[in-house]
Design goal:
Elements (H helix, E strand, L loop, with lengths): L1 H25 L23 E8 L2 E3 L2 E4 L5 E7 L5 E4 L1 H5 L1 E3 L3 H8 L3 E4 L4 E8 L3 E6 L11 E6 L1
Parallel strand pairs: 1-4, 3-10
Antiparallel strand pairs: 1-2, 4-8, 5-7, 6-8, 9-10
Length: 156
């Protein structure tokens, strides 16, 4: 009797895991479209961007809270210091900023507001916030958010 219960429980857990994985793989995201800032995009002097460094580590962002000012250009420098891959998943934030047109922006838009970083990878994201608000940040790799890899982005 106990063996049947154990096998039944294992079967149910296996089926539940398959459904969770399928649901995660089939989720769709809204496309990322940059919002034009108050200044014309051509007038942004990217060389005057304020650099903000963010480390992606084993289940945390350092810092895990970032504050930006509307209308100011920024260079978000991401470095993955973890033992495996991580990502910077902030679609609401990326929909609220003007992104400098470049290869990184193309990746962010194609992925629906996520930038992936392999182990020891790094990238720069240039942007101008154009909408105030509080925006969630997570690493959406399997279980990373559950382990506490979350943050908050504030635009004043």
């Amino acid at each position: 009797m106990r063996e049947k219960f154990t096998m039944s429980l294992r079967s149910m857990l296996s089926v539940a895991l398959v459904f969770v994985l399928i649901a995660g793989c089939t989720a769709t995201r809204e496309p990322i479209v940059s919002v034009a800032p108050a200044l014309a995009p051509a007038s942004v002097d990217w060389s005057r961007s304020t650099r903000i460094n963010v480390a992606l580590e084993s289940f945390n962002f350092t810092p895990d809270r970032m504050t930006f000012e509307r209308g100011q250009p920024y260079r978000l420098h991401l470095e993955n210091h973890g033992s495996g891959g991580h990502n910077f998943d902030a679609p609401e934030f990326f929909r609220s900023v003007y992104l400098r047109p470049d290869a990184t922006t193309a990746k962010i838009k194609a992925a629906g507001g996520v930038i992936e970083l392999r182990r020891n990878g790094e990238t720069d994201i240039y942007f101008v916030p154009s909408k105030s608000g509080n925006f969630p940040l997570v690493c959406s790799r399997f279980l990373h958010e559950s382990f506490g890899m979350v943050g908050k982005i504030v635009v004043k």
